[in-house]
Amino acid sequence: MVAELAGQAALVPMDGFHLAEAELRRLGRTDRKGAPDTFDPAGYAALLARLRAPEPDSAVYAPAFDRRIEEPVAGSIPVAPHIPLIVTEGNYLLLDSAPWSRVRTLLDEVWYVDLDTPERVRRLVDRHEHFGRPRADAERFVHASDEANARVVAATRDRADLVITFTPEEAPPPAGS
Q1: d(Cα 120, Cα 123) in Å, to the nearest integer?
Q2: Among candidates 171, 22, 156, which has minimal Cα distance to 90?
Q3: Low-confidence ranges of the chain (pLDDT < 50)
Q4: Domain assignments of the chain as residue spans, ordered by start
Q5: Helices (H), ranges, 53-108
Q6: 27 — phi, psi (to 5°)?
Q7: What is the reported pTM?
Q8: Calpha distance 115→153 (Å, rounded)
Q9: Is the CATH code 3.40.50.720 the one for domain 1-108?
Q10: Keywords for this entry (predicted)?
Q11: In whole angstroms, what is the distance from residue 74 CA to residue 81 CA?
Q12: How does pLDDT run across 44-68, given as a tens digit for each residue?
């Protein structure tokens, strides 16, 4: 969608607000990477607030997440002040507990995209394997960490402005494929 609106929209994913791997190790949270407490929601909310009221002559720079190195990278996404539509995506946009609850107040609409569990799991395992995990490790991580995160996300579905449900045949290809 953002590509179709070239120059009129920007994509600013929540993934850039993953905590760094060193911080996850310090916190003892590497086994649950991707859980709500492994992000910087206050930083994400601050970025969303800046994007809603940009300075007229300066870009806002957002971080991205680089899966090749499994780390957030600051200043990766420039957003010009004249861009009228900001699209963001992430698992925890609809969480109603602090500090995540502030995020929803900064979004005009939130769409929940649903994909059946077997297809979602298959895609997650494939993604982890593509970025270097052995298949067995990828499957273990998905069933332990990613599925726990998916249950948290599923509990927020009823707060969405729109729910889009895809069958495996209808679903767009995974990002980056």
Answers
A1: 5
A2: 156
A3: 177
A4: 1-108, 111-177
A5: 101-105
A6: -80, -10
A7: 0.87
A8: 12
A9: no
A10: Kinase, Transferase
A11: 18
A12: 999 999 999 989 999 999 999 998 8
